[in-house]
Specification:
binds zinc ion, hypothetical protein PF0899 fold, alpha+beta, 25% helix, 2 helices, 123 residues, three-stranded mixed β-sheet
């Protein structure tokens, strides 16, 4: 399953953040997924429950935000939403468009449980 290796990659990124911040565990992970990324959100969520086992993200909640496909049109200089299988301008129908969003697979944010620092002893 492609989604599992994707999840393992995301968890790898999360584990680096955990180490950097000296966190105890991860409480929440937000991932942005576009339909052109080749990853399906429900499969990603399912793979996540496997990939997180034995990691500091073991109890973490995964939130997947599905991004719309949006294109920028060179002809009318507008950004519009496009259909997945028809990447043309939603305004004038021109195909001279640049993809603005829809192919992301991005670790957007991670909520960490960081132990409070012991107050420094006076003196
Ligand atoms: Zn246009």
């Amino acid at each position: 399953m492609h989604e599992l290796s994707v999840c393992q990659g995301l968890i790898g990124q999360v584990e680096r953040l955990v180490a950097e911040h000296g966190a105890k565990r991860v409480t929440r992970i937000l991932v942005l997924v576009g339909p052109l990324s080749g990853v399906e959100a429900p499969l990603l969520e399912r793979a996540f429950t496997i990939a997180r086992m034995g990691t500091s993200a073991e109890d973490a909640e995964l939130e997947v935000h599905e991004m719309p496909v949006r294109v920028w049109c060179d002809t009318c200089q507008m950004e519009t939403e496009a259909a997945l299988n028809r990447l043309v301008c939603g305004n004038c129908g021109d195909w001279h468009v640049t993809l603005r969003s829809g192919d992301e697979l991005l670790l957007k944010s991670v909520a960490l449980d960081i132990p409070e620092q012991e107050p420094a002893a006076a003196g």
